[in-house]
């Protein structure tokens, strides 16, 4: 074939855009699946594109090139969204994420900080073709020459049938796969996106009356529990739950070239506190707001979307409601606008008496989403002093925000000098931001002491979610994490957040190795305060009474993943081809079982059913 014939063949829209889609699929597969030469994408992505191209060739008599460019633009948008979503959440994007588009604009800096410049190559053809067809005379002529070509309609009808058959061949054998990432890889990203739209499977419905605490406890592996020495040890005390933004467990006790990263929290660990190093996040797409939901309800996050959109039409049994029934005042403190992540609805569903948001904290010393942690803690401490003046105990949840992704805090907030090898890295920015958060926390401690609240309060501190996703780290960042940990950074390390309890009645500091998660905070707090959970169905457990735990995970890991004393398990297409990891603190060789896997899935199903059958909230 002569070079002239090759050129004529390549410039045909069907051939040209096939090549474009192949190159874009290579880029997407390289980022998401780590496959640099993903020849499998030819068998999965191209049949989907060809099916659309055949429809254009078969039915479009005019503006054919415009239809090709529209399909190209849509496919490009899907691939780019999949890349960016995976870098941020570690899962494959679906159309459900469109529900949260409004929130993405609020975290635009966070999302785009994850973008490597070469990702933008996925748009280069669109920009180039736009200039060529609209600003170049040859391009305008080419567009006119091609828009009316009808082609061999029978040929394209047959190719459409073959392409559609290949799409079904890729989809149908992989429908049962539990792992969404493997499912997308086996089906192809485009097929997977179409599958999620049209395959709306109905989950099993379980009557809420059949979901009892005994049933939940049996699934969790909880036997008859004897009261621990901590039961009611903090009865009558205030409860302050501090949720620290993106705070991971490895920060505690960490020194870099002799510099202590969290000196104030480290000091607290030695001040008659209980420390749980094997504690794990349990959030989903709502991140910080999901943590607020899980901590205050002891339910799991919804199967898709954020709790603030899926569950806030219900009257939620909650820690604020439980403590109000036992004579407590309740308030939550967050420097951002209460409308962000639909918190205004979440807070009414949880039954908070008061919330304090941007209107209260104002624009003093702002960065990221609102006033700095220093302002948050100072104004919160003053308000808590006012609340305690009447002698009635209070429950306050305080949400810190200054150490938020992408962790580029203002230079005037720098409180440590980073070693040269950390400068300009994602890990370095993260550590410096968390160092500032620790400094602000130290001021909060001093203000609580000055206001006479420190000794009469239980303080529970935890990180809301990870700050350093494995899939967001480049080569240099991974090397720094290996330096910090002394081994490769694992999924168990990534999900590991700390829980610290101060003022719980213990007379010495203790490190407690049992596994725990955010779902356990409500029953643990209730146990310390001597408040009965008998009439509150909960999926967590009192960490001071139980040793074994089973924590189903969602969203940042594929469906079916869970953490237990036996380790972290991530399923493949099924349980049989799973991958297991040691717990964050190491210990025994991971040995998670299929029984635990099945029980974890059942727990999620029961939580989903129970919450969706709660009484609907009456809107004011």
From TrEMBL:
It holds the Pfam family Sulfatase. Residues 237-531 form the Sulfatase N-terminal domain. The chain crosses the membrane at residues 9-32, 38-56, 65-86, 118-135, 156-173. It is a multi-pass membrane protein. The active site is at 288. InterPro entries: Alkaline_phosphatase_core_sf, LtaS-like, OpgB/LTA_synthase_biosynth, Sulfatase_N. Mn(2+) binds at residues 245, 288, 464-465. Substrate binds at residue 404. This is Sulfatase-like hydrolase/transferase. It comes from Paenibacillus monticola.
């Amino acid at each position: 074939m002569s070079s002239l014939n090759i050129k004529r063949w390549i410039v045909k829209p069907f051939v040209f855009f096939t090549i474009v889609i192949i190159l874009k699929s290579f880029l997407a597969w390289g980022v998401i699946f780590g496959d640099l030469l993903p020849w499998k994408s030819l068998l999965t992505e191209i049949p989907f594109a060809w099916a659309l191209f055949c429809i254009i060739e078969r039915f479009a008599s005019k503006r054919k090139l415009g239809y090709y460019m529209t399909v190209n633009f849509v496919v490009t948008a899907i691939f780019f969204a999949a890349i960016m979503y995976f870098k941020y959440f570690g899962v494959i994007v679906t159309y459900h994420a469109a529900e949260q588009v409004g929130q993405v604009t609020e975290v635009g800096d966070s999302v785009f900080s994850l973008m490597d410049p070469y990702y933008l190559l996925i748009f280069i053809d669109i920009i180039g073709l736009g200039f060529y067809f609209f600003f170049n005379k040859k391009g305008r002529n080419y567009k006119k020459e091609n828009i009316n070509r009808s082609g061999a309609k029978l040929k394209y009808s047959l190719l459409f049938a073959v392409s559609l058959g290949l799409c079904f061949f890729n989809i149908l054998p992989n429908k049962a796969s539990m792992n969404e990432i493997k499912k997308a890889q086996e089906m192809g990203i485009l097929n997977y996106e179409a599958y999620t739209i049209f395959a709306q499977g109905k989950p099993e419905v379980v009557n809420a009356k059949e979901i009892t605490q005994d049933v939940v406890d049996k699934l969790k592996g909880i036997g008859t529990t004897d009261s621990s020495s901590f039961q009611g040890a903090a009865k009558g005390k205030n409860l302050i739950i501090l949720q620290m933004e993106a705070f991971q467990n490895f920060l505690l006790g960490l020194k870099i070239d002799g510099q202590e990263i969290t000196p104030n929290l480290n000091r607290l660990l030695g001040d008659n506190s209980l420390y749980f190093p094997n504690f794990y996040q349990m959030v989903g797409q709502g991140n910080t707001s999901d943590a607020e939901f899980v901590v205050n309800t002891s339910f799991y996050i919804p199967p898709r979307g954020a709790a603030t959109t899926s569950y806030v039409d219900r009257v939620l049994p909650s820690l604020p409601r439980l403590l109000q029934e036992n004579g407590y005042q309740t308030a939550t403190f967050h420097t951002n606008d209460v409308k962000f992540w639909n918190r205004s609805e979440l807070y009414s569903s949880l039954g908070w008496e008061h919330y304090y948001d941007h209107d209260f904290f104002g624009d003093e010393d702002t960065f990221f989403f609102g006033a700095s942690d220093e302002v948050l803690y100072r104004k919160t401490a003053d308000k808590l002093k006012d609340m305690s003046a009447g002698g009635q105990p209070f429950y306050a949840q305080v949400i810190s925000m200054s150490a938020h992704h992408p962790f580029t805090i203002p230079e005037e907030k720098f409180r440590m000098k980073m070693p040269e090898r950390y400068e300009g890295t994602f890990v370095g920015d993260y550590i410096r931001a968390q160092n500032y958060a620790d400094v602000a926390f130290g001021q909060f401690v001093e203000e609580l002491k000055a206001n006479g609240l420190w000794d009469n309060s239980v303080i529970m501190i935890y990180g809301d979610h990870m700050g350093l996703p494995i899939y967001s780290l480049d080569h240099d960042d991974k090397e720094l994490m290996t330096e910090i940990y002394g081994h490769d950074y694992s999924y168990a390390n990534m999900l590991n957040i700390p829980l610290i309890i101060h003022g719980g009645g213990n007379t010495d500091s203790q490190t407690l190795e049992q596994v725990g998660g955010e779902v356990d905070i409500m029953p643990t707090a209730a146990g310390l305060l001597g408040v009965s959970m008998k009439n509150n169905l909960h999926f967590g457990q009192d960490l001071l009474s139980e040793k074994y735990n089973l924590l189903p995970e969602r969203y940042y890991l594929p469906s079916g993943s869970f953490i237990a004393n036996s380790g972290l398990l991530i399923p493949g297409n099924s349980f049989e081809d799973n991958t297991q990891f040691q717990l964050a603190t190491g210990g025994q060789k991971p040995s998670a079982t299929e029984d635990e896997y099945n029980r974890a899935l059942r727990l999620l199903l029961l939580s989903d059913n129970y919450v969706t059958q709660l009484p609907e909230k009456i809107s004011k």
